[in-house]
Write a structure and sequence with these properties.
single chain, 496 residues, mainly beta, Immunoglobulin-like, OB fold (Dihydrolipoamide Acetyltransferase, E2P), 4 domains, 8-stranded antiparallel barrel, 5 helices, 7% helix, disordered N terminus, LysM_dom_sf, DUF5818, LysM, signal, DUF5818 domain-containing protein
């Protein structure tokens, strides 16, 4: 498995304390000799890896390098200082040795070699670090890959995060964490620092480029050209979330809808098994794209069975409240949540524009062909509508366009009409104090009807799902379309 880093990263760290690493220290020898001539395609990082010389050491030995990303081909890089050239002597086993000089301490030796005091002590076994003899030979730690990198978990979806831990790294060392597909370049994700014992424990995200079916390798990279690799992380596809719900099936705009006992609604996709409107059922399925209703979670049903409804749920009974509006074939009940039901029965036509509570039965078949279901109304009574005077921002073009009548009024003769003016603005046509008048609608932070000659500004507030409250002008009461606007204003209902 071959990894190549895809960008230059120079790590500079200043570590205080007795066991600090100095930018002035590094190994005295390199695998490439005392110098290296830049060839086409080289980067400082690739040279660092090949020659086993740290990036910081290369920069220290070559102070004339202004831009490490732009080095001319043929440039000669120094890899060993003249003072270091005779410091080490090879042992018979091939292990490098350092000869203790006058004034050396274990800390200065560690800084010169670019290793830690802990590594020096571990490499040389039992000796007195406070009593070094001139000429004494010390073993020099190499960069053999002894560290172990582990990840958890070993598989997951594209949005997974991975906990990466490592042991036996250099203490207090700065490293780069990266990841990439097998047998490919890896990308840096973040930098981290090991603790005093050379341990690392960090959480890193899976790269955005990870695709299901791929295996990714996480790496811990040092600036000495050593890269430690983890076991593969398998990228899996997201498992669809299974849903088990129960409720009553109602007719929806595009698909049947399930209404749970707590009032939540789900659009039901598929018809195998068959989904029958009016039944109380338990369904199992998975989330599907919301093609049935944009504002509802769509469930692709693969199992359905009819179950007993909870106490108090009567399939033949229906109770709801909302505003009565004109529909295509039948009047509509629009609830505060936005649900629409077609209404048939005595007394419904006379309630248009009112906020009412109705009781009735769901009709099996209806010619109305509008709303979630058709309700044959047995009882209807006017009740107090919810008020939401702080919802001014919801007064949009789409909400306001149409004919408006006072609650209980005649939608065939609206009190005012709001139409598009053709320039992106809205026009209101009505009567003021008995005279025909045309004004414009001002939206934004302070919505209002604006009339000129004489000037009138009537503030507007949204009330409920389809209500509009018109407030009196500063000069006092006014007749708007034959309706007196005074005090706390008057509520009008959109006739649709």
């Amino acid at each position: 498995m071959y990894f190549r880093r895809n960008q230059f990263t120079a790590t500079t760290a200043i570590l205080a304390g007795l066991f600090a690493l100095s930018a002035q220290g590094a190994g005295a020898q390199s695998r490439c000799g005392a110098s290296y001539e830049i060839e086409r395609g080289d980067t400082l990082y690739s040279i660092s890896q090949a020659c086993r010389v740290s990036l910081s050491r290369i920069m220290d030995l070559n102070p004339t390098l202004n831009n490490p990303r732009d080095i001319a081909v043929g440039t000669e890089l120094r890899l060993v200082s003249s003072a270091d050239s005779g410091d080490r002597t090879p042992a018979g086993s091939g292990q490098q040795r350092y000869e203790v000089q006058q004034g050396d301490t274990l800390n200065t030796i560690a800084r010169r070699l670019g290793v830690s005091v802990f590594e020096l002590i571990a490499e040389n076994g039992e000796f007195d670090p406070d009593d070094l003899d001139i000429g004494q030979l010390l073993g020099v730690p190499d960069d053999r890959p002894s560290a172990r990198v582990m990840i958890s978990p070993s598989s997951g979806t594209q949005d997974s995060s991975v906990t990466l831990s490592a042991r036996n790294l250099r203490p207090n060392d700065y490293v780069t964490i990266g990841a990439g597909p097998r047998a490919a370049e890896w990308s840096a994700l973040r930098q981290a620092q090991t603790d005093d014992e050379g341990r690392l424990n960090v959480e890193v995200p899976l790269p955005e480029a990870a695709d299901p079916g791929e295996s990714f390798i996480f790496v811990v990279d040092t600036d000495r050209g050593v890269t430690y690799k983890s076991d593969p992380f398998d990228v899996t596809r997201e498992t669809p979330r299974r849903l088990t719900l129960e409720g009553r099936v109602e007719t929806g705009l595009e698909c049947p809808e399930l209404v749970t006992p707590d009032g939540d609604r789900y659009a039901l996709a598929g018809n195998n098994p068959p989904i029958t409107t009016g039944e109380y059922v338990e369904i199992s399925g998975v989330r599907a794209p919301a093609y049935c209703a944009a504002d509802l979670t769509t469930v692709d049903v693969y199992d359905l069975r009819e179950v007993a409804p909870p106490p108090g749920d009567d399939a033949s009974g229906f109770q709801a409240e909302g505003w009565v509006r004109a529909g295509t074939e039948c009047p509509l009940l629009v609830t505060p949540s936005g649900a629409r039901y077609a209404l048939t029965g005595d007394g419904v036509d006379g309630a248009k524009g009112e906020y009412v509570e109705i009781r009735g039965d769901r009709a099996d078949i209806s010619y109305c062909m509008e709303g979630r279901a058709t309700i044959t109304v047995d009882q209807i009574r006017e009740v107090t509508a919810p008020r939401n005077g702080d919802d001014d921002q919801s007064l949009t073009h789409a909400y306001l366009v149409g004919g408006w009548t006072v609650k209980g009024g005649d939608c065939n003769r609206p009190d005012f009409d709001i139409t598009e003016a053709g320039t992106g603005s809205l026009r209101v046509e009505t009567g003021l104090n008995g005279a025909p008048r045309t004004g414009y609608v001002e939206l934004g932070g302070d919505p209002a009807f604006i009339f000129d000659q004489p000037y009138r500004a009537l503030d507007l507030e949204r009330r409920g799902v389809d209500g509009l409250a018109v407030m009196p002008p500063a000069g006092g009461a006014v007749q708007l379309g034959g309706r007196t606007i005074e005090g706390d204003g008057r509520v009008f209902i959109n006739c649709g």
